[in-house]
């Protein structure tokens, strides 16, 4: 009897100690989570430094300045193309349509004298020589949807509409890294068109008026630019073609330190000087 009670007391002591140990570990984990919590993103100010006309037939998916040209990749079935415009005037100089009308064009990026173009749900991406956009020189398979694309001068970054950005080798197209994007409220999804600017990735959050500034080292959203009211102020007579005629297009003018932004079927491109 006494031995039995001793065993029971010993077991109770072990269970109590275990519970206390778990409680301590839980508290420590909570403290660690609090110490690494993502701070609220800063609201970034800007001034409109100018506007340019934008092709309203362009359902913008990708937008990039390279050299003295402004490149745009567009979507929709039967009307996907890449265009080349003069960034001083916005005037479209050339259009290169995707010949296969079953292909839905998406984001673009320019690296090593090549233009890369995603497709939406076709699970293929195209590679062009920048000096001859009328001819595809390569393709690679992409297992997810294609949304936005940019590069840091070495690697490509691709968005797929989720909260993850994929880092790709531009030669093998192998995924060499992932960035989980988070803000102070948790993960951030619907990441769309991308632009790499001075060590940060700027991204349109689909169906919003916001551009997010992301630190690629942490995935944290460190700043937000709200473009609400730009169209109503500068193009009050414009009627959106559809509910999808939203902000989507970011290009960086490194020389003048200006962010060019536009939207799907928008009549204007805005030059933003960040504060």
TrEMBL record:
PROSITE patterns: PROKAR_LIPOPROTEIN (PS51257). One of its GO terms (molecular function) is glutaminyl-peptide cyclotransferase activity. Keywords: Transferase. It comes from the Bacteria. InterPro entries: QCT, Quino_amine_DH_bsu, WD40/YVTN_repeat-like_dom_sf. PANTHER family: GLUTAMINYL-PEPTIDE CYCLOTRANSFERASE. This is Glutamine cyclotransferase. It comes from Pedobacter hartonius.
């Amino acid at each position: 009897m006494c031995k039995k009670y001793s065993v029971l007391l010993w077991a109770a002591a072990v269970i109590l100690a275990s519970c206390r140990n778990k409680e301590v570990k839980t508290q420590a984990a909570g403290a660690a989570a609090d110490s690494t919590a993502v701070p609220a993103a800063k609201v970034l100010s800007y001034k409109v430094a100018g506007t340019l006309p934008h092709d309203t037939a362009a359902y913008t998916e990708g937008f990039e300045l390279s050299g003295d040209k402004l490149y745009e990749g567009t979507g929709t079935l039967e009307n996907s193309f890449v265009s080349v415009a003069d960034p001083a005037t916005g005037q479209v100089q050339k259009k290169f349509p995707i010949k296969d009308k079953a292909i839905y064009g998406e984001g673009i990026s320019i690296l090593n004298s090549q233009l890369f173009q995603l497709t939406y749900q076709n699970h293929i991406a195209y590679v062009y020589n920048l000096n001859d956009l009328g001819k595809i020189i390569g393709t690679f398979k992409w297992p997810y949807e294609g949304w936005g694309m940019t590069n840091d001068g070495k690697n490509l970054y691709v968005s797929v509409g989720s909260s993850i950005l994929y880092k790709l080798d531009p030669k093998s197209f192998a995924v060499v890294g992932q960035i989980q994007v988070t803000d102070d409220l948790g993960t951030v999804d619907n990441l769309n068109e991308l632009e790499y600017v001075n060590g940060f990735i700027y991204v349109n959050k689909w169906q919003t008026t916001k551009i997010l500034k992301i630190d690629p080292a942490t995935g944290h959203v460190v700043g937000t630019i709200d473009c609400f009211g730009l169209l109503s102020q500068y193009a009050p007579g414009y009627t959106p073609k559809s509910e999808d005629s939203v902000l989507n297009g970011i290009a960086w003018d490194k020389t003048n330190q200006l962010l060019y932004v536009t939207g799907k079927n928008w009549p204007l491109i805005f030059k933003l000087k960040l504060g």
